UniProtKB/TrEMBL annotation:
One of its GO terms (molecular function) is damaged DNA binding. Its EC number is 3.5.2.6. Residues 162-194 form the DNA repair metallo-beta-lactamase domain. It comes from Otus sunia. Residues 257-269, 277-300 have a biased composition (Basic and acidic residues). GO terms for biological process: double-strand break repair via nonhomologous end joining; interstrand cross-link repair; telomere maintenance. Residues 211-314 are annotated as: Disordered. It catalyses: a beta-lactam + H2O = a substituted beta-amino acid. GO terms for cellular component: chromosome, telomeric region; nucleus. Keywords: Chromosome, DNA damage, DNA repair, Exonuclease, Hydrolase, Nuclease, Nucleus, Telomere. It is an enzyme of class 3 (hydrolase). This is 5' exonuclease Apollo. Belongs to the DNA repair metallo-beta-lactamase (DRMBL) family. It holds the Pfam family DRMBL.
């Protein structure tokens, strides 16, 4: 399950889950107010009873014992029913044969070592649920007597006498859902499976406290932000929108190389330079000292107010002309030419 907390309130998203009373001891949920509960309502119907997974596992074991000379094929989806496979492997002391990719998946899940990809190593196999059909049962039984087990809580159509549905599900039963909502007491319940009106079964267990989320689709701050952004885009010219779409938004502290700064200054050659400006202060540590070439991450700098500048600090004459000259113009001068220009300027000043 996923628990979200923030200025929008508290949201619990169950995903596909099977409720057990052990969840009431979960520290993240115990005594917590839930504004909105997104609930797995797959079996949210009073006319659809569902036994516990332990009872369903024993039912599958009894079925296998009544067919002692048969191979057993169990239809499963990409995820789920792993506990059933492990329990049956331990119960009958046999390997469960799976495909190589599913074997790697079982290893990633850190399940007990009861799975193998070696054909014939065990007489219980796990295959994709789509393989449990008439044609495959006929071909399997032509080689060796075989029964197929479909562990599912949903009603299925049986196309072969050797296909046996077992009411094993990783989704909560109707009774378990009501017990879970009664214990959690959320402010509202939103079913994950759409088209269901199962909220009526939980109304008596909801909290009477006002919830922090009035709109189930989008929180109000996100709505306001989206509206403002849409209005702003309508006012901007198409060329600016195209340019903005091509730029990547910088994150965190961004440093620019001198070459990039030179390229940016060339783009604005015709722009008029401001008369006064000041450099950005160097990043500072928490003590207010400038950081120097450390290997650690840069720390957030405290705002530093610029020192007052008197009129005598403003450049005049050639110096002012040089400071306000774009970099692409200065690049045509070598350092020797620049030194000569400075000397000539001061020489003319002394002569006057």
């Amino acid at each position: 399950m996923f628990l979200f907390e923030g200025a929008f309130g508290t949201i619990l998203y169950t995903g596909d889950f099977r409720y057990t009373r052990a969840m009431q001891g979960e520290p993240a949920l115990r005594g917590r107010r839930i504004d909105r509960l997104y609930l797995d309502n797959t079996h949210c119907h009073p006319q659809r009873p569902l036994p516990s997974r332990q009872l369903a596992t024993r039912q599958a074991a009894r079925l296998i014992r009544t067919h002692p000379r048969h191979h057993v094929v169990i239809g499963v989806y990409s995820l789920g029913k792993e506990t059933l496979l492990v329990d049956l492997a331990v119960e009958f002391s046999t390997w469960v044969v799976v495909s190589p990719w599913r074997l790697e998946q079982m290893r990633l899940l850190e399940l007990p070592n009861v799975f193998t990809a070696e054909e014939g190593a065990g007489w219980i196999r796990a295959v994709d649920v789509a393989e449990i059909r008439w044609e495959t049962l006929v071909s399997w039984n032509a080689l060796h007597p075989t029964i197929a087990i479909l562990p599912t809580g949903r009603p299925v159509k049986v196309t072969h006498p050797n296909i046996h549905p077992i009411p094993y599900s990783d989704h909560s039963s109707f009774a378990e859902l009501r017990e879970f909502v009664k214990w959690l007491k959320p402010c509202s319940v939103i079913p994950i499976v759409r088209g269901s009106t199962c909220q009526v079964y939980f109304q008596e267990y909801l909290s009477s406290a006002p919830q922090a989320l009035p709109d189930p689709e989008t929180p109000p701050p996100a709505q306001d932000s989206a509206q403002q952004q849409s209005t702003r885009r309508e006012r901007e010219p198409a060329c600016l929108l195209k340019r903005a779409a091509q730029r990547s938004a910088p994150r965190g502290v961004v440093y620019e190389s001198p070459e990039k700064r030179t390229e940016k200054s060339e783009e604005f050659t015709g722009a008029k330079a401001p008369q006064h400006s000041h450099r950005e202060p160097a990043p500072c540590s928490e003590e207010g000292h400038a950081s120097h070439g450390g290997e650690g991450e840069p720390r957030a700098a405290r705002p530093v107010s610029p020192a007052p500048v008197s009129d005598e600090h403003f450049p005049t004459g050639f110096a002012e002309q040089y400071l306000l000259t774009p970099l692409n113009v200065l690049k045509q001068y070598s350092s020797q030419k620049f030194d000569k220009l400075v000397e000539d300027y001061f020489r003319r000043g002394k002569a006057s």
